[in-house]
Amino acid sequence: MKIRANGITIEVEDSAADPALDAGAPSRPVVLLIMGLGMQLVAWPGELVQALVDAGFRVIRMDNRDAGLSQSFDHLGTPSLLWAGLQHKLGLVPRAPYTLTDMAADALGVLDALGVERAHVVGASMGGMVAQRVAIAAPRRTLSLTSIMSSSGAKGLPQARPEVVRALLRRPASRQPQAVVDHFVQLFRVIGSPAYPTPEPELRARILEGVQRSFHPAGTARQMLAILADVTRAAQLARISSPTLVLHGRADPLVPYAHGEDTARRIAGARLVGIDGMGHDLPPEPVAQMLGVLIPHLQAAGQPAAA
User: Fold this and answer.
1) 165-217 pLDDT, tens per residue?
2) Distance between CA atoms of 227 and 273, rounded to whole angstroms?
3) What does the alpha-carbon distance between residue 169 and residue 126 come to, in Å, rounded to a whole number?
4) N or C: which end of the chain has fewer CB within 10 A?
């Protein structure tokens, strides 16, 4: 369903809207799931969503601005990522059409629109960066923070290998669905979990679902610029007071494990859990391992403090 949040239109899926799925949802603690660069709310694995519902949580997923069925910002133009990347390497801050702070305000606007005062905020990849921004901006509304395969954005962290960057920046041969699916299959073969490869028919079906729902590369480019321009977040992570869990694949070729280590180091009391063999995706086996620590983290953070 579409809602107005932070003055724009955001597409959300709310387990409370489906009584057959989650009859007790309105009174349950809320988990807000924020997906990564160019990704849509349908990219959250169904088993993860259902496990959270079964554990007693109301689960809200959202399409970020410029992705999925949420409002696009094509009127702001399509940036040159090559130029922005060069500026970034030279220590310059690219000018972004909007910021990760704006995207965090979108997330808080979703909670406002749904009448949610406080939530557990969980983000993957870029979504982890947005979730960090939510926890910085609104500590009283953030019951807990979980940052998955994400980064602090600090300078000097190890970067993806050149072949990984090339795969990320490569474009499909055309906008035809088959060409787009072929492109993303190749990308996920490069950045995915080496120990848990997704069978190609399953991977293709999952990608096709997303492509048929929405394919908006210009929006992805603007989101990338927002990431490159967010140069102050690392120093601000010390402000986060919410209980924090950092989950990261030890075999992540796109956002190396050191990024997770650095994120956890900068947030007081944060717990870091590394997943062996996990890359920059969410296959069933790593998801099951993550749920084994994520659900207790959420449950503990929702308990009143001891007197």
Assistant:
1) 889 888 899 999 999 999 999 999 999 999 999 999 999 999 999 999 999 99
2) 24
3) 16
4) C
CB 190 within 8 A of CB 275: no
DSSP line for the chain? -EEEETTEEEEEEEGGG-TTT-TTGGGSPEEEEE--TT--GGGS-HHHHHHHHHTT-EEEEEPPTTSTTSPP-GGG----HHHHHHHHHTT--PPPSS-HHHHHHHHHHHHHHTT-S-EEEEEETHHHHHHHHHHHH-GGGEEEEEEES-----TT-----HHHHHHHH---SSSSHHHHHHHHHHHHHHHS-TTSPPPHHHHHHHHHHHHHH---HHHHHHHHHHHHH--SHHHHGGG--S-EEEEEETT-SSS-HHHHHHHHHHSTT-EEEEETT--SS--HHHHHHHHHHHHHHHHHHTSPPP-
Pairing assessment for the beta strands 58-62 and 2-5 based on DSSP bridges:
unpaired
Confidence of residue 124 (pLDDT cuts 50, 70, 90): very high
Indicate the range of 80-89, 130-139, 294-303 predicted with least confidence. Answer: 80-89
Q: What domains sit in the chain, N to C, each tagged with a CATH number? A: 2-159+217-301 (3.40.50.1820)
